[in-house]
Amino acid sequence: MTYLSKKDFSQLCLGSSGEGGISQIYIPEIVRTLEEAAMGCPPVIWLQGASCGGCSISLLDNVHPKLRNALIKIKSLAFLQQPVANKNDFVEKVLTIARDYKGQFYLIIEGAIPTGADGLYCIVGEDADGRPISLLNLVKKLSASAKAVLALGTCAAFGGVPAIEPNPTGCQGVSKVLAGQTVINIPGCPPHSDWVIGTLVHVLRYGIPDLDGDLRPTLFYEGLDQGEEPLGYLTESLKKTSFS
Ligand code: SF4
């Protein structure tokens, strides 16, 4: 079995960002890291907010089949896909994970967070008294005890399409909502699957990677100007489009 040191892994990622693919010889090692995560702790909570679902779908569609299987095998992965019928069960489950694994679990957020009307545009469940629980409140609550927060895709990182003016739901990127907390941005619409897996493996095995001024892992985004993102021109062009 190939063993990947942090230095080897960084080199691999720098190559991958320029050439577009994780070498096949490293797949077993990366699968092993994901399977280790799958066997026990730490749990991963994955929430979808104002999202088209493309980030997770493209990840599962594009990633190497062995990596996809390892990803799906993360037993402690709690995944909220919108819309979902039994939201209350889900909210209870993730709050229990946050309580039981305080400071140990990872929170992945896909999509922007509606902050308008105190978050009421995105309700994820109800409390015991029947009062709505918003995604905004859930994210704030969970992030306070998460080991790391990952914002997956341009919508989660910077607001993306849902935050385009006039932005009636007040959508914002995760780092803006969680100002002052460490958030790892993995922008792209959707982000390259290697960059998602690479960041996840880095966080699970080596901890939080070096981040640039936009909170993006330099392993993958070095060389892109600050604020620049893959397909950023699309967001810019949409901003200039009138939908009225
Ligand atoms: S970043 Fe793109 S693919 Fe991901 S949720 Fe937003 S619009 Fe969809």
From TrEMBL:
<dbReference type="GO" id="GO:0008901">
    <property type="term" value="F:ferredoxin hydrogenase activity"/>
</dbReference>
<dbReference type="GO" id="GO:0009055">
    <property type="term" value="F:electron transfer activity"/>
</dbReference>
<dbReference type="GO" id="GO:0016020">
    <property type="term" value="C:membrane"/>
</dbReference>
<dbReference type="InterPro" id="IPR037024">
    <property type="entry name" value="NiFe_Hase_small_N_sf"/>
</dbReference>
<dbReference type="InterPro" id="IPR006137">
    <property type="entry name" value="NADH_UbQ_OxRdtase-like_20kDa"/>
</dbReference>
<dbReference type="GO" id="GO:0009375">
    <property type="term" value="C:ferredoxin hydrogenase complex"/>
</dbReference>
<dbReference type="GO" id="GO:0051536">
    <property type="term" value="F:iron-sulfur cluster binding"/>
</dbReference>
<dbReference type="Pfam" id="PF01058">
    <property type="entry name" value="Oxidored_q6"/>
</dbReference>
<keyword id="KW-0560">Oxidoreductase</keyword>
<dbReference type="GO" id="GO:0044569">
    <property type="term" value="C:[Ni-Fe] hydrogenase complex"/>
</dbReference>
<feature type="domain" description="NADH:ubiquinone oxidoreductase-like 20kDa subunit">
    <location>
        <begin position="52"/>
        <end position="203"/>
    </location>
</feature>
<keyword id="KW-0830">Ubiquinone</keyword>
<protein>
    <submittedName>
        <fullName>NADH ubiquinone oxidoreductase 20 kDa subunit</fullName>
    </submittedName>
</protein>
<dbReference type="InterPro" id="IPR001821">
    <property type="entry name" value="NiFe_hydrogenase_ssu"/>
</dbReference>
<dbReference type="GO" id="GO:0009061">
    <property type="term" value="P:anaerobic respiration"/>
</dbReference>
<comment type="subunit">
    <text>Heterodimer of a large and a small subunit.</text>
</comment>
